[in-house]
Amino acid sequence: MYEQASHSLLNDILAELKPEAGNVRLRHFYTRLGANFYAIHSLFHLLYGDRSDFKEQMASLVEKLAQRYIERAPGLRKSDLAREKDYNWFLNQKWVGMALYCDRFADDLKGLRAHLPYLQDLGVNMVHVMPVLDCPPDNSDGGYAVRDFKRIDARFGTTEDAAALAATLKKRDMLLVLDIVVNHTSDEHEWARRARKGEKKYQDYYFVFDDREIPDIYEETMPEIFPATAPGNFTWDGEMGKWVMTVFNNFQWDLNYRNPAVLIEMIDIILFWANQGADILRLDAVAFLWKKMGSVCQNEREAHLLLQLMKDCCQVTAPGVLFIAEAIVAPSEIAKYFGEDAINAKECEIAYNATFMALLWDAVATKNAVLLGQGIKSLPNKLERATWLNYVRCHDDIGLGFDDNDIRLSGYDPAQHRRFLIDYYTGRFPGSIARGLPFGENPKTGDARISGSLASLVGLESALESGNEAAIDAAINTIVLLHSMILSFGGIPLLYYGDAIGTLNSLEYLADPAKAADNRWMHRSHFDWSKAEKRHQTGTVENRIFSALKKMIALRKEITAFADFDNRQLLAMNAPHLLVFSRTDPQNSRNRVLVVGNFNDAEQTLAISALRPHGFFQQGAMKDLCSGERITVENDAVVLSPLSCYWLTD
Ligand code: GLC
Ligand code: GLC
Description:
Blueprint: H1 3-16, H2 27-48, H3 54-70, H4 74-85, E1 97-100, H5 102-105, H6 109-114, H7 116-122, E2 126-129, E3 133-134, E4 148-152, H8 159-171, E5 175-180, E6 184-186, H9 190-196, H10 200-203, E7 208-209, H11 213-221, E8 234-237, E9 242-245, E10 252-254, H12 260-275, E11 280-283, H13 301-317, E12 322-325, H14 331-334, E13 350-352, H15 354-366, H16 370-378, E14 387-391, H17 404-409, H18 414-425, E15 437-442, E16 447-451, H19 454-457, H20 460-466, H21 469-488, E17 492-496, H22 529-533, H23 541-558, E18 568-570, E19 578-584, E20 592-598, E21 604-607, H24 608-611, E22 622-624, E23 630-631, E24 637-640, E25 644-649
Parallel strand pairs: 1-2, 1-17, 2-5, 5-11, 11-12, 12-13, 13-14, 14-17
Antiparallel strand pairs: 3-4, 6-10, 7-9, 8-9, 15-16, 18-19, 19-20, 20-25, 21-24, 22-23, 22-25
The structure holds alpha-D-glucopyranose (GLC) (2 copies).
């Protein structure tokens, strides 16, 4: 693609474009369009260049970008300009996130606004409000089966309530994260309803087939995402008399991005929510965006091109808005969602660090950090201006998404080790203290994932039941240890709403027929505000967890070495139970923190001789920021408590 061709096309499009904008200043829009158009045009051409209506489609995209720019509120435009200048703003260690369901944490959006002081008490300043858009009440997949992308579900409130929430968050210096479910719609979405009624235009928004011929070819290579509850990847629609692709639940129809109209609609939806004041958009299930026969239909190159286009378009209209990639895929694939052939992030600035999450769960079950360290070593390098979303628990199941080769290098057999982990967390392994359930068990492949709340998975539920104080201590220490890892690793930590008060599994979902078959609901319970009150009562479980996390969060925000500039060094210590890494302030290399996590339930010693070459323990003792205590050296070693974490400085 020649740049000249791009310029000339842009001139044609702009000549046609008549933004009803006599008095609106479009200067910044034109600058950004000029800077990004070559990329947008090239990508659009790669995907849709062979279509006869290519030019019209291109024009329609640019028109959407202009319309959404014109309606972007002055305050948001101002913040765009500020963030363009301070473009590394989100790499700062001051951000700490939490994901929550608006209706389960509070009743609705108004209630959520009223409960913000709880989040601020903990130190959370980035709120991922799980999907709040209009969904069918029963077939909602927790909000991920959207019926109307531009309407807040009446159960949560109105668009005004969402705007009021966004405004309040801004005043409190908190960020708003919203979901955009880019891969599929509910089967009750208007597009699906019209497709069902026979409108060809909307059938072309989906993958629709008269018979099983093509679906069967796809099925040869496509894995099943919900094998237990929604086997297969296609669903027969009686009314339409056709098969439709449904990778997730059978009521979630996959969008067909081979049709540029779909991409343009989705970019419009992205910009719509950017204009409602979202700071960050979480793009759901991005690995699935492009389907190709003969492939697993995940992580396809075109999925990346689509994301690059979405990003470039967002840069034109709402450049202050960031994307989170929700791509829970193999370690080597995840980092590609930052953007491949680029130095700076060109797709999503932020990605779920699913590998680290899964590795942490391995360390908890095995009580050692061998695979954890090995897996971190194999994490691909990030681009500049890209950062991880580090989490311990989220609303989904835990998939053991680390690499078989890393498992082998850690001395285990991959299949046996995965089996052990599933058995451990589902309580089948003799002596296991965990109380999870298997999710998505697939007898055909032997795969399974894990459901359960953080507290129940680390043994708090079983310990409270038996009244065993030592076991309660160990569970609390494990919760704190896991959080200390996501707070110090590098990236934005994302807590999950019940975890700071030790929320256990909940079985309330079993009474709801629309949820009973999906045990992810066991860790999506209603937030218990009377339990949360106990955080103020010294010595309660809630108080012990909450106050420890609150303290670490406050500390994190002060430690400049915790900002994410790829400034982590993993230190090999020949101590299998420990994870040891250093973080260094890129502006001032004397600001360093040595992070040590002991995953064993017994004391461990760490030889100082191994640390000295890295410049630690030069003066004898070091200070642990978490406890405020000095860690002294005895017999050339330091002693580390069971299930504990240290942030050490000179
Ligand atoms: C994402 C969501 C998950 C949902 C799926 C389908 O993975 O996190 O909850 O079921 O997408 O939308
Ligand atoms: C998405 C996620 C996967 C999860 C599934 C359902 O596919 O990528 O991790 O298991 O949704 O929760």
